[in-house]
Amino acid sequence: MKQTAFTLVEGICALIISSLIIFNISLAIMGIKKTNSASLDSTVDWYLFLHELESDNHRFEIVQVQNQQLLLFSQAAHRNYELKGSNTLYLTCRQGGGYLPLLDGVKSREYSFTQLDSQRVLIEVTRISGKKVKSVVKLYPPSSE
């Protein structure tokens, strides 16, 4: 009365091999998702940073442009702001303090501002990943107060 079937050891080995295969596939999928989201996050961060500078909520105008410092005046809040940083670019209010982080993942001190005309500034940034990005930001014209 012998019946052919899997032994207990064969069954356990099959389960172990199946679980290892499934585990490796899930690790590969998580790695691919993380890689894709990281590259998209840095691009999205960059465009959000530019949008914040050109926002109608602030209506920033140029006061002074230095290589690693951008002085702005908010026509909406009637306050002076300074855009600067090292690993993070952030806005600080010159009257009353406080700061707003705008762009993370900047290679330490590898960014610059260049004034093109009375409303436009070229911003160049090297990200931690080594990717260099640059864009021209058009701010509001100086208020005639």
Automatic annotation (TrEMBL):
Any Pfam family hit: ComGF
Keywords: Membrane, Transmembrane, Transmembrane helix
Membrane-spanning parts: 12-32
Domain of life assignment: Bacteria
UniProt keyword Membrane present: yes
Annotated protein name in UniProt: ComGF family competence protein
Source organism per UniProt: Limosilactobacillus albertensis
